[in-house]
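name: query_chain
kind: protein
chains: 1
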Amino acid sequence: QVQLVESGGGLVQAGGSLRLSCAAAVRTFSSYAMGWFRQSPGNELEFVASSTWSFGSRLYTDSVKGRFTISRDNAKNTVFLQMNSPKPEDTAVYYCALTPNYWRSSQLMRHSNYDYWGQGTQVTVSS
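structure:
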């Protein structure tokens, strides 16, 4: 059983910064692709960022490019989402996800391609 535990959410002012963490209880963490998704009230689950197992490829949704950075520490089985200059429209519950399967980078934008999910962490950006 794979467990993912997010942390780091909270209230942040627009233009500030926040770092989300997701710790995975798995073996060979470096072999898995990881993703971050978010969902705000009344909206569908939205892709934010992904990182392939080799860390050779990172993808971002257009609205966060240049502001958010996905990174991972394979020694600590943890993936991070650094949120710089957040905007009120970034307010959402953020989820990390993991897949043990091989997917092309573009396919990691689909939430249905992930097998395991964290419980979510609320991020609220005030104006």
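note: The two ends are 40 Å apart (CA to CA).
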